[in-house]
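User: I'm curious whether this sequence folds into something compact or stays loose and floppy. Could you predict its structure so I can see for myself?
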Amino acid sequence: MVTSLRWCADIGMFAYDRSIPKSCVHATPFCKVHCFNDKLYKYYPGMHGKDILNESYWRDISGARVRADLAGKRTRQTKRVRLMTRGEGISTHGDINRVRRIAEGNPDTIFWLPSRAWRDDTLCARIVAELFPVPNLRVLASLDPSNSAEEIESLARDGFSTMFFGDDSELATAGRFKCPKTHSHAKGHCAVCSTRKGCFSRAPVHVHLKEH
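Assistant: Here's the prediction. I'll summarize afterward.
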């Protein structure tokens, strides 16, 4: 089977993707209206067909398959990989198992996973219990202006890192690490971003993405 791993120059790393209609089951109404992929589907209609292949690949993915994917990509950095740039990495309980196997099977690579799966209480509990302890996995709870203060406080109590998008006001950015890629237009910066302040920190961090 042809790999669904692709190089994403915008973030400076390889990434896997999934079908948005199939996987984005935890999206907020705000997320659906402001999805940055919408314009890409208009420019590149072939993405719809690629989504079918990506979803099929994801169903059968394993730590060994990812290891084989990365082994053939050594001309570019493989120390950091994103799950996903399109679609949701954790839509079901089976995805928890997939993500854990991928990370545990590739301990020399850090896997970056922004997710809205925290909106499902049972998935949220499993993320905390089963994925937080995996040392090379970075799960960030995706947030937008539709999320309540209570939800954000609950995530903080559970020890989540968060990633906020949708409001560039001073109030929204206060106390958050301003993503250099979006705030400073630093293309590819995610590959080398701080492991203390940015998305790749092991300690909880709160990142702000500027509209782009």
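Summary: DSSP finds ten helices and eight strands in the chain. The chain has a mean pLDDT of 92.
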